[in-house]
From TrEMBL:
Major location (coarse): cytoplasm
Entry annotated with the keyword Nucleotide-binding: yes
Motif 'HIGH' region, residue numbers: 11-21
Protein name, per record: Glutamate--tRNA ligase
Family statement drawn from the similarity comment of this UniProt entry: Belongs to the class-I aminoacyl-tRNA synthetase family. Glutamate--tRNA ligase type 1 subfamily.
Alphabetized GO MF terms: ATP binding; glutamate-tRNA ligase activity; tRNA binding; zinc ion binding
Iron keyword on record: no
Keywords: Aminoacyl-tRNA synthetase, ATP-binding, Cytoplasm, Ligase, Nucleotide-binding, Protein biosynthesis
Length: 466
């Protein structure tokens, strides 16, 4: 029986949850959830100056909005400093690491001299094989003894086998002279202690894998499965940055994209399953595999995102959509829907969610539900309400008063009335939209009537007829 899959997402809390980080989290979540494994969350807060509780909260909030639930408690990397140091001292005791007394100034001077001579700036510590009897009574860093010949092969599920010559690897510092562990050591110890089996992360970490493998091998630990995924680029093929638009997932929530559409789009960003574009979470979890990840950077495309979000809004359960709409209003500091409005929105959802790609578009279509009498038409709609139109609405109202309030009956009354005026119903639609919604782009007139009910519909028509 194979060991259960354990993946992790390990962001640094120095800002919001970046769109690239969100996709990395999603890939880890999909891989674990699709195999009945565990998805863990670790906050890499060892950079005490740049890490903030606010940033940690923003990351957790972004994960929550995206629906990426993690197993167990959130792990703080900084809290494990003693354990990380313990591993460095163990390697020192076993002769797999050594004390290095070289100062920052000495290392800097060596590098500058090497650069001037056109030689490699890879620092080779003179303390690697020094006799302990020659050790001064001074602060020291602990460095790992890296192999000096041969090759290290990173077997990567996305990039294939990546070979690095060992003479390109330095004796990496594990513990600084002030006794604090470096990030590279902390990552390996945490991943091992947390039982992580698959490390799925951005390919900007690919070179780190070779150096991290030194620690795994020196400790006799199993090396995880590596999968280094290409970064996300903007539509122009350059690395995604602020100039391309929103970078934090919180901004996408505030723009009104539904979380399911965002998950679907991010999953397709650099991963594919045949020609499938639109899919559910259950399908994504069942299909997602490391083999489907492409080697080249994915390009972010707002049109595709909007298209998928529109499909997800249309396919959503009405109650779930209403719940997410309320969350969108809260995220954008807009007043929540009252119970009465919420009920009406729920009733109207069937005629609102087709062709709305975002929540602001959905709310625009729902204006007829959200507006209070008297309805104030916008400029375009007001143009539909001239004296002739008002007269027609006044005449139509009594006909509707006695109609049974079903779609067929309302359509029949409206069409008969239009015929009696030697016109088509299409000519009445504009003034009716203006009267019922104050807008010229709305759901069907009959859908609005059914949602609003007889009393409210007639009251709005009476108001508009003047």
């Amino acid at each position: 029986m194979t060991d259960p899959v354990v993946t992790r997402f390990a962001p640094s809390p120095t800002g919001y949850l970046h769109i690239g980080g969100a996709r990395t989290a999603l890939f880890n979540w999909l891989y674990a959830r699709g195999r009945g494994g565990k998805f863990l969350l670790r906050i890499e807060d060892t950079d005490r100056e740049r890490s903030t509780p606010e940033a940690t909260a923003a990351i957790l909030k972004g994960m929550e909005w995206l629906g990426l639930d993690h197993d167990g408690d959130v792990v703080s990397q900084a809290a494990g400093a003693e354990r990380h140091a313990e591993v460095a001292h163990q390697l020192l005791a076993e002769g797999k690491a050594y004390k290095c007394f070289s100062t920052q100034e000495e290392i800097q001077a060596f590098r500058e001299a090497a650069r001037a001579e056109g030689k490699s700036t890879l620092f080779r510590s003179p303390w690697r094989d020094a006799d302990p009897a020659t050790h001064p009574d001074a602060p020291y860093a602990i460095r790992i003894k890296a192999p000096q010949d041969g090759e290290t092969v990173i077997r990567d599920k996305v990039q294939g086998d990546v070979t690095i010559r060992n003479d390109q690897l330095d004796d990496m510092i594990l513990l600084r002279s002030d006794g604090t562990p470096v990030y590279m050591l902390a990552v390996v110890v945490d991943d091992h202690d947390m039982g992580v089996t698959h490390v799925i992360r951005g390919d900007d970490h690919l070179n780190n894998a070779a150096r991290q493998m030194l620690i795994y091998q020196a400790m006799g630990w199993d090396v995880p499965v590596w999968a280094h995924i290409p970064l996300i680029h903007g539509p122009d093929g350059k690395k995604l940055s602020k100039r391309h638009g929103a970078l934090g997932v919180d901004e996408y929530q505030k723009m009104g994209y539904p979380a399911a559409g965002m998950r679907n789009y991010l999953a397709r960003l650099g991963w594919s399953h045949g020609d499938d574009e639109f899919f559910t979470d259950a399908q994504a979890q069942a299909w997602f595999d490391l083999d489907g990840i492409g080697k080249s950077p994915a390009r972010f495309d707002f049109k595709k995102l909007e298209n998928l979000c529109g499909q997800h809004i249309a396919a959503s359960d009405d109650a779930a959509l209403l719940h997410e709409l309320q969350a969108f209003l809260a995220a954008t500091d807009q007043p929540a829907l009252s119970d009465a409005r919420s009920d009406l929105m729920g009733k109207a959802m069937y005629c609102l969610k087709e062709r709305a790609k975002t929540f602001p578009e959905l709310l625009e279509k729902a204006q007829f539900v959200l507006a209070d009498r008297p309805i104030r038409p916008d400029e375009k709609a007001a143009a539909q309400l001239d004296d002739v139109s008002r007269g027609i609405l006044k005449e139509l109202t009594p006909h509707l008063q006695n109609a049974s309030w079903t779609r067929d009956a309302l359509e029949a009354v409206a069409n008969e009335f239009a015929e009696s005026k030697n016109t088509k119903f299409g000519k009445l639609a504009g003034p009716l939209r203006a009267a019922l919604a104050g807008r010229s782009a709305t759901p069907s007139v009959f859908d609005m009537m059914l949602v609003l009910g007889r009393e409210e519909t007639l009251a709005r028509l009476t108001d508009a007829a003047g």
